[in-house]
Amino acid sequence: MPWRGGKGGPGWEGHFRGCGYRWTVSREVIIEVLSSTRHHMSAEDIYHAVHKDYPAIGLTTVYRTLDLLVDMGLVLKFDFGDKRARYELAEEFSTKEHHHHLVCNRCGRVIDYTEFIDDEVELFKKTEKGLSKKYGFQIKSRMIQFSGLCGNCNREQK
C-alpha cells in the first residue's frame, strides 16, 4: 500500500482512526488490492482477489467496505454503463496520475486518458473557475468520462 500520509501524516490506519473507524484486516486487504492494480475493479473482482488469501472475507464485507471507502473519499466509484460499479483509489491516495475515462459503448473497454494538451488544461481551469464563481462552489476534484467507440470497434463498424 503506497500511501503513508503526507509529510509524516497518519497513513491508512491513522486516517481510519481519525475518522472514528477501526482499522481491520478486511479494510487493509481491500485497499491493498486497489493499490496494486491499474484496472477499474468491480466488487466481485475485488472479492475474488481477496478471497484467495482471506477466505473469511465475504462479498458482503467487500461491498460494505467499498461503500465506507467511497463515503470517506478514499475510493471513487464509477458507472461505465455495464451495470457493475467499478472502483479505484482517489487520486490523492493513488500512484496513478490524474486521468479521465474513455468508455467504449460496444465492447466496454475503459481507457484512462492522461495526455492532456495545454488547451484542455486551460479549458478545465476556466470551466472550474466559472462554475465556482457562478454557484459559489469550491471544486475539489473532477471526474470526466467520454463515451463512444474505441478504435477497434470503430474500425469493425465501418
Summarize the structure in words.
The chain is an alpha+beta fold and 158 residues long. It folds into two domains: 91 residues, Orthogonal Bundle (Arc Repressor Mutant, subunit A); 62 residues, Dna Ligase, domain 1. It has six helices and five strands. A hairpin with a 5-residue loop joins strand 3 and strand 4. Helix 2 crosses helix 3. The longest helix has 18 residues. The protein is flat, with a radius of gyration of 18 Å. The N and C termini lie far apart (44 Å). The N terminus is likely disordered.
Secondary-structure blueprint:
Blueprint: H1 11-18, H2 25-35, H3 43-51, H4 59-71, E1 75-79, E2 85-89, E3 100-104, E4 110-113, H5 118-135, E5 145-148, H6 151-157
Parallel strand pairs: 3-5
Antiparallel strand pairs: 1-2, 3-4
The major β-sheet equals: 3 strands, mixed
| CATH architecture descriptor of the largest domain | Orthogonal Bundle
The first-level CATH class name of the largest domain: Mainly Alpha
Helicity range:
40-55%
The average pLDDT score comes to 83
Global structural class: alpha+beta
As for the CATH topology of the largest domain, it is Arc Repressor Mutant, subunit A
The CATH superfamily of the largest domain is known as Winged helix-like DNA-binding domain superfamily/Winged helix DNA-binding domain
Give the end-to-end Cα distance, rounded to a whole number of Å.
Answer: 44 Å
Strand order of the largest sheet: 4-3-5
What is the N-to-C order of secondary-structure elements (H for helix, E for strand)? HHHHEEEEHEH
Strand content: 5-15%
Shape from CA axes?
Answer: flat
Radius of gyration: 18 Å
Tally of helical segments: 6
Uncertain stretches: 1-9
- Count every beta strand, where a strand is a DSSP E run of 2 or more residues: 5
Question: How many structural domains are formed by the residues?
Answer: 2
